[in-house]
Design a protein that fits this description.
- The chain is mostly helical.
- It has three domains: 63 residues, Arc Repressor Mutant, subunit A (Orthogonal Bundle), CATH 1.10.10.10; 30 residues, no CATH class; 26 residues.
- 64% of the residues lie in helices and 6% in strands.
- It contains six helices and three strands, in the order αβααββααα.
- The chain has a three-stranded antiparallel sheet.
- A hairpin with an 8-residue loop joins strand 2 and strand 3.
- The radius of gyration is 20 Å and the shape is elongated.
Length: 137
């Protein structure tokens, strides 16, 4: 199987990226230990290879020239999550955000907190659109 392109992340790579987004700077050994505490028993070599792949794809950057090497995320959670979501919408929903929303909300009960968040997003969008309209006049 071919290695994913530089914009794609495997499930394990994404799991490792979450560690760096939560912990800022880590060595491969620290990342392996954190995964182990979460119940994921990966060998040091496996984690080091995942980190090396993430560095090659420009998701992580090495911070120091001597061992043990420390790494940190080079791309933010927001940036990566937006790209992955856009890719998923394209692949699964043929680019239709409306289809994504229907899938999310037709099958599940929406909690009060989720409704509040949705209404907040809608109100912010309305305010931005209104402001754009006023600036054009």
């Amino acid at each position: 199987m071919a290695r994913p392109t530089s914009t794609e992340l495997s499930a394990r790579e994404l799991e490792v990226m979450h560690l760096f987004w939560q912990n800022k700077e880590l060595t491969a050994l620290e990342a392996r230990d954190l995964l182990e505490r979460e119940g994921r028993e990966l060998t040091y070599v496996t984690v080091a290879n995942l980190i090396r792949a993430l560095e090659q794809k420009k998701f992580l950057e090495q911070l120091n020239p001597e061992r043990p090497f420390k790494y940190r995320a080079q791309r933010s959670y927001q940036e990566v999550s937006h790209v992955l979501l856009k890719d998923m919408i394209g692949k699964i929903f043929s680019g239709s955000r409306k289809s994504l929303l229907r899938c999310l909300f037709d099958q599940e009960t929406i909690s009060a907190e989720e409704k509040e968040i949705l209404l907040e997003i809608i109100e912010k969008k309305k305010a931005k659109e209104k402001q754009k309209g006023e600036n054009r006049e």
